[in-house]
Specification:
- The structure is a single chain.
- The protein has 194 residues and is mainly alpha-helical.
- It has helices at residues 7-27, 31-63, 67-90, 96-127, 130-146, 161-180.
- Helix 2 (31-63) runs antiparallel to helix 5 (130-146).
- The protein is globular, with a radius of gyration of 16 Å.
- The relative contact order is 0.17.
Length: 194
C-alpha cells in the first residue's frame, strides 16, 4: 500500500498491484480464493481512489489547464468502479455473474489506469514542481492508511467532506475487516496494515 516516492510513483505502484490482482483473479477457479482476491482488489482500489480524490484531483484542478473537467471525469470513473465493486461483494464467487462483474470492472479500471499513466501523470509532472509532487506522495500514503476498505458509493468524493468523513468510515471498515478476517492475502499477510 505505501510504496514511497512522489505521487506519480506511488499511484503507479498501486496500479501495478491492481493489475496483479486482476491477473491472479483470472487464473483461479476456486471460489474461496476468488472471493479473497476480489476483497483484496477492492481494498486496494478503494484506498487508492480515496487518496486520489482527497489529494491528486484537487492538485489536478489547481495545476492543469481544464483541471476541473479532468478531475470530474476521473471522479466519475471512480463512481462507476465503486458501484461495480459493491455489486461484486454481493455476487457468489462461484457464479458466472461474479466473473462478468470482474471483467467489467477490469475493463473500466484498466482503461482508467491507462488514461492516468499516459495523459494525467505526465501532464502533472510537467506542471508541478518536484517538492509539490513529493508532498502529494506523502499525503497520498497517509490518506491510504486511514481510507475506507469497502465501497461506499454514496460517500462524498470531493474535499472537504471526503477528508472529514473518510477516516471515520475507514475505521469502521477496518474494524469489520478485522472481525471477519477480510483482507488477508494468500500468504497470510494482513494487507490492511501495510
Amino acid at each position: 500500500m505505501g510504496h514511497g516516492g512522489d505521487v506519480v510513483a506511488e499511484l503507479t505502484a498501486d496500479h501495478d498491484e491492481v493489475k496483479d490482482y486482476f491477473q491472479r483473479l483470472g487464473r483461479t477457479v476456486d471460489p474461496e480464493e476468488r472471493r479473497n482476491l476480489a476483497d483484496l482488489l477492492t481494498i486496494e482500489l478503494v484506498r487508492h481512489s480515496v487518496a486520489e480524490e482527497q489529494y491528486l484531483y484537487p492538485a489536478v484542478r489547481e495545476h492543469l489547464q481544464d483541471g476541473d473537467l479532468i478531475a470530474d471525469k476521473e471522479i466519475a470513473d471512480h463512481g462507476r468502479a465503486e458501484r461495480l465493486m459493491k455489486q461484486l461483494q454481493e455476487e457468489d464467487a462461484a457464479g458466472t455473474r461474479f466473473t462478468s462483474v470482474v471483467r467489467e470492472l477490469e475493463a473500466d479500471v484498466l482503461a482508467h489506469i491507462h488514461d492516468e499513466e499516459q495523459n494525467l501523470f505526465p501532464a502533472l509532472r510537467h506542471a508541478c514542481a518536484r517538492d509539490v509532487l513529493d508532498d502529494l506522495g506523502d499525503k497520498t500514503r497517509r490518506a491510504k492508511k486511514t481510507a475506507p476498505t469497502r465501497p461506499h458509493p454514496g460517500a462524498p468524493s470531493t474535499p472537504p467532506a471526503n477528508k472529514l468523513l473518510g477516516p471515520g468510515i475507514g475505521l469502521v471498515d477496518r474494524a469489520r475487516d478485522l472481525l471477519s478476517g477480510r483482507g488477508r492475502d494468500d500468504r497470510g499477510k494482513d494487507d490492511r496494515a501495510a
